[in-house]
Amino acid sequence: MKRATSEARERLKSAMARLAGGDRAALEEIYRATSTKLFGICLRILKDRKEAEDALQDVYLTLWRRADRYDPERASPISWLATFARNRAIDRLRVGKVRGGSVPEEEAAPISDPAPLAEDMLIDAERDERVHTCLEKLDDKSRDAIRTAFFDGSTYAEIAENTGTPLGTIKSWVRRGLMKLKTCLEVGR
């Protein structure tokens, strides 16, 4: 699951870079990958399907004009776009573009949104990046054992069996690797 998420994030980063270079096909790829989530954000804030569709259109128009401002070092593409969607929806509330039946601006803030806040998503993305950077600094055996155990969900016994390595050795690799990982993460604070 994590690997698929990472691959999807990389495809989206690549599409963002291509869009910044003027590749129109990249916009379609980004739309297909993100429109459902971004529409959900707009709809939760605006509570009006037509308004949410209009806000979503604004998001992609803005993206087309500003794709060159995306910095993959600062945020994941979906975090950046989710912030766009939230801001466009709130902007529509502020300027009074919303039709009757939607919520007044004062009520927009407390609307329940099960998605993490953009700030939390940015913090999570930064934390993920630090973890992966620190993992890359570990020796191959510790790094592979930790990834297999924690990202793929394998038990130490399964790792030992699959690699033909004694169970105690796997446990040592993971324990030493986790200690080094902890030190690296603490230094990066």
Automatic annotation (TrEMBL):
What the entry lists under PANTHER family is as follows: RNA POLYMERASE ECF-TYPE SIGMA FACTO (PTHR43133), RNA POLYMERASE SIGMA FACTOR SIGZ (PTHR43133:SF62)
Does the keyword Nucleotide-binding feature in the UniProt annotation? no
Which residue intervals define the domain RNA polymerase sigma-70 region in the entry? 31-94
Boundaries of each RNA polymerase sigma factor 70 region 4 type domain copy?
129-181
Report the CDD domains cross-referenced here. Sigma70_r4
Family per similarity comment? Belongs to the sigma-70 factor family. ECF subfamily.
- Protein name listed in UniProt: Sigma-70 family RNA polymerase sigma factor
Superkingdom of this protein's organism = Bacteria
What keywords would UniProt list here? Sigma factor, Transcription, Transcription regulation
Q: What organism does the UniProt record list as the source?
A: Qipengyuania gelatinilytica
